[in-house]
Amino acid sequence: MKIQYCATYWGCEGMAGDHFLDVAREAGYEGVEINLPSGDFDRPDFRDKLETWREHDGFAFVAQQVLAGRRELPSEYITRMKERLERLAAFRPDFTNSHTGKDFFSFDDNCRAIEAAETVAVKTGIPVYHEIHRGRFTFHLLGLLPYLEKFPEMKLTADFSHWCCVSESLLDDQQEALSRIFPHVRHLHARVGFPEGPQVGDPFASAFEDALSAHVSWWEDIIRQRKAAGDATFTITTEAGPEPYMPLDGNRPVADNWEVNKRMMSFLKQTLSL
Fold first, then answer.
1. CB-based contact 172:141 (threshold 8 Å)
2. What is the pLDDT of residues 157-169, one digit of tens each?
3. Nearest in space to 236 (alpha carbons), one of 259, 218, 210
4. Dihedral angle sign, alpha carbons of residues 108, 111, 116, 122
5. Closest to 238 measured CA to CA, from 271, 274, 273, 196
6. In this structure, which long-range contacts are made by residues 64-67, counting pairs with CB atoms below 8 Å and at least 24 apart in sequence?
7. Percent of the chain scored above 70 by pLDDT?
8. Residue 197 Cα distances to 40, 50, 143, 159, 201, angstroms
9. Residue 78 CA from chain centroid, whole number
């Protein structure tokens, strides 16, 4: 099974879309994940280059559905989310990674959001994977299980850093629940969290050795399952973010998130045991 590493646009927002594609490819990535803003990304120089690379080289393209916060009713949120998913589908990504629902919505309201996302996926032919993330319906490990029982075909983007933060642990005592999540995962965010936050500054520092080891073991279990299921490819976005995710030393980030992500890609290429 081929693993394709994707570069995150997070932290590169000042870069033109077509230039970001060049920078990502020169760094060794075989795909990109972008929360597409309006404007520059509608231009032919971005879309034509992306389509050419996808057609000839199998370059991966993941679109992100992330809505700005707003005080609104669940019905208003769902309408806005559907409009965003439909706009992203026009770019024909491999799939859309969706920040779906809210942690304070009722179970029924979040189910309506999930159903709306699935309606768009069927209509457009673009799969929607729901990201494990604080603030969304996926914010808590045990809290996700009832949704998986209601939607057994649901696909997830796994970002376990958030659950480490929410549970203030490395999930040592929740392995059985984790094993029920793994079969639903189709995409990974390779970011290392710890009990006090969703991102360590340097995942390769000795102080975070246990956190890195825990995340790698989860990632390996998931990829092995997808390989056993016969999947030909699997995508991983190295997703260390800029501040405020990246800790500060005074006014300066303790590390450059782009460099941390490149190092993570290199580390995983050498380390993942499949």
1. no
2. 999 999 999 999 9
3. 218
4. negative
5. 271
6. 64/33, 64/34, 64/35, 64/36, 64/88, 64/96, 64/97, 64/98, 64/99, 65/35, 65/96, 65/97, 65/98, 65/99, 65/100, 65/128, 66/35, 66/99, 67/99
7. 99
8. 33, 34, 19, 13, 10
9. 20
